[in-house]
Design a protein that fits this description.
Helix content: under 10%
Shape: globular
Order of helices and strands: EEEEEEEEEEEEEEEEEEEEEEEE
Strand order of the largest sheet: 8-9-10-11-24-20-19-14-17
Largest sheet: 9 strands, antiparallel
Radius of gyration: 18 Å
Structural class: mainly beta
């Protein structure tokens, strides 16, 4: 296990080989560092669920009841945690990544999965450029049978009393039992972030569709904002806000806005919900850009 630090004078980044997760992303200012992701313990053993961001590969979220059919074959997935019955967020966030290349402003990590239905190789590259962090995932299918793939990230952002978010969408999915994606419905009051809006202080665990791949997060108290963009534009984001009734230690200090190249449970949706069919040797990439600026 190892930690990797990048710093270009404007931004400071710490990445862990455990889960390929970001433990720190902060902007330098005259008043000191400004956290742009939830600060995490800078320790090699910090799990991804306590980190500031982790990758979603070979797809994000859950497949309903761990079952799907693809090109005439039926597949069943197995739970990968001891607290959820589903195969959650893929494999990368739970495994060790290998450092392939590191410079002062660039880092390339690699993970290879050779067991089960999904067999793949994935690189995750981190680049600091002035006040921007660019993260790119490139996944290559190495299994014999084609499989549907998706990519994304699970960032945790600081939640202050007046945090505002703008992330356009056309509809959202209701949450079904066992944290699964349910019916898609029109945006409702309190679930419409087409314009800058403060976040609710209650449980939110929903996917939003018809996204243009861009979002704005503002922290008025510290006079800062973060622009999120994705290349190619992700059509779906997930928003997660926990609740002290579910997590007694939670104090509304963070929220998640997770860009995904596909819909949750896309394996069982028409058109695979944005998932990409990859045959052996085929690959695709997804990038996330986080750009800091003062308000």
């Amino acid at each position: 296990m190892a930690l990797f630090t990048l710093d270009n004078g404007s931004l400071s980044l710490v990445v862990s080989s455990l889960g390929g997760s970001v433990l720190k992303l902060a902007a330098h200012s005259a008043e000191g560092e400004i956290p742009l992701l939830r600060p995490a313990p800078l320790d090699e053993t910090t799990p991804a669920l306590q980190a500031g961001c982790f990758p979603l590969v070979p797809f994000g979220n859950r497949v309903n009841h761990n079952r799907f059919s693809f090109e005439g074959r039926d597949y069943r997935l197995s739970a990968n945690t001891d607290w959820d019955r589903h195969y959650l967020h893929g494999d990368g966030w739970l495994q060790q990544w290998q450092c392939i290349e590191q410079r002062s402003d660039f880092l390339r990590l690699r993970y290879q999965h050779t067991e089960g239905h999904y067999q793949y190789r994935v690189d995750q590259c981190f680049t600091l450029d002035r006040q921007q962090l660019r993260i790119e995932l490139l996944v290559e299918h190495i299994g014999e049978s084609p499989m549907p793939y998706g990519l994304g990230w699970h960032p945790y952002f600081p939640l202050t009393p007046h945090t505002q978010v703008q992330a356009s969408a056309q509809a959202y999915w209701l949450e079904a039992e066992e944290w699964l994606a349910g019916e898609q419905v029109a945006l409702s009051e309190g679930m419409d972030f087409n314009r800058l809006a403060e976040l609710p202080r209650r449980w939110v665990n929903n996917g939003f569709g018809g996204w243009n791949g861009e979002a704005t997060i503002q922290w008025p108290e510290q006079g800062s904002q973060l622009q999120m963009s994705t290349e190619p534009a992700c059509p779906v984001y997930f928003m997660f806000i926990s609740d002290p009734a579910f997590d007694p230690g939670y104090q509304f200090e963070f929220f998640c806005l997770e860009p995904m190249s596909h819909a949750a449970n896309g394996h069982n949706l028409a058109g695979l919900g944005g998932l990409r069919r990859l045959a052996k040797g085929e690959s695709f990439s997804q990038s996330l850009l986080l750009s800091y600026s003062a308000l």
